[in-house]
Design a protein that fits this description.
The chain has about 500 residues and is an alpha+beta fold. The chain has ten helices and 14 strands. The strands form four sheets. Strands 2-1-5-4-3 form a five-stranded antiparallel beta sheet. α5 (about 270-300) packs parallel to α8 (about 425-435) and α6 (about 315-330) packs parallel to α7 (about 350-365).
Length: about 500
Amino acid sequence: MKLLSQLRTSSFQLALLYMVVFATSVFILLAFIYWRTAGFMTAQTDETIEAEIAGLAEQYRGRGVNGLITIIRERVARDPNAKSIYLLTTDDFLKLAGNIESWPKGARSESGWINFTLNEDVGWNGPKRLARARIFEVQGGLRLLVGRDVDELTNLKRVIETAINWGMGITLALALLGGFLMSRSTTRRIEVINNTSRRIMNGHLSLRIPTRGTEDDFDQLAENLNQMLDRIVYLMEGIRHVSDSIAHDLRTPLTRLRNQLESTLMSVDNDEAREQAGRAVAEADQLLATFNALLRIARLETRGNAADMKPVALDELVADACELYEALSEDKEQRFEQHMEKGVMIEGDRDLLFQMVSNLIDNAIKYTPEQGVIGVAVRKEGAESIFEVRDSGIGIPDEEKDQVFQRFYRVGKSRSLPGNGLGLSLVSAVAEIHQGRIVLSDTKPNADAPGLTVSVHMPAFTGVRKRIKATTMEQTAGVGGDNSPSPSEASDA
């Protein structure tokens, strides 16, 4: 599977393209060499035959037919290996001289050049061999064939062809191997960048892409990406610092304002004034809840302290949260369904986990209409412990499910409902501290109300203690240090 994924990479495809271009170039080069070599050897053979014909013609002009026959017989006698082929016949193909007995069958050519086989058909007593010859007519109706044994030349051509074929095969194999190794090296560098980028996208903003110090293209790309990440983190920290500073600086005067409004509420006798003061106190409480949520999220995300996590029975913790919220669901005549698998353990901070569970259950109650259904489940699947809340409310569109964990983000349908868009941000921060992941999906009780199912997947406790970066109880506590939120305080969404 890994090999197939590597073959699909652009680096391997680029190497494959280079291999095709390289192999084509090598093929053209070898073909040119073969053409020139074979052409030179053939031309050399033809020149040798032409030279012999010129010598025979000179003898014929000087000594006549008898002299031609004599010189052919002498040349045959001097050439026991029959490298040169001669045949002189009459017009009706009666042999007069030569080292073959009969005319080759079908030996006709407009250019006068023929290729034939030396075998028993032409009166050849030795092993079959290839020959090349030229035919022309001598004055007086005689026919003359002068040729050369080209069997060695043909074998040499075959050796060259075989060498070229093997050379092409080896070239393709080496090019393929080289392309694979090159793409593998490139893929490793790219995979390092991808893995680091994925971890950064999952929240590890302190990570940076490693470099090798070679100052090559990948190092330059990594350095540019690292500089971009530094700039992004700097801007994010600036925005976060501003929001945290505003929340921290305004919480105290808002608390004093809220207390003064409450004192005014207790001292006035006018009903209308008391009602206005009560609304002002409620608005102040909402503002304080928003600022407290901002500060809790900031402290969770910074995770400045490291604390030993303890084994927590997730089913018992969720059961306690359900007991706290059952009264709210009864007020809306909602059916509260619980499916708790016993003995589901995780390692974590109980107070943070209770905050997360409370936020999700409160959201489900808030966004589920009257007489709706709310389901809470705890189960273990493999190496994961899963906490799940499902409702039959307005749901979240698919295109917005990745954005609801941002601070102050609210789905369009829920903007008319109370809340500040911080609840799921807090849930996400707690889940990240516990090395968990959140999955959002539609419950789909009906088309008008798709509902929402929130599943939090966390590593199951295996008995091996570990240290996970987390904030302490004091960091996550709200005003007054209350770590077990009441139903009215738990949800920030």
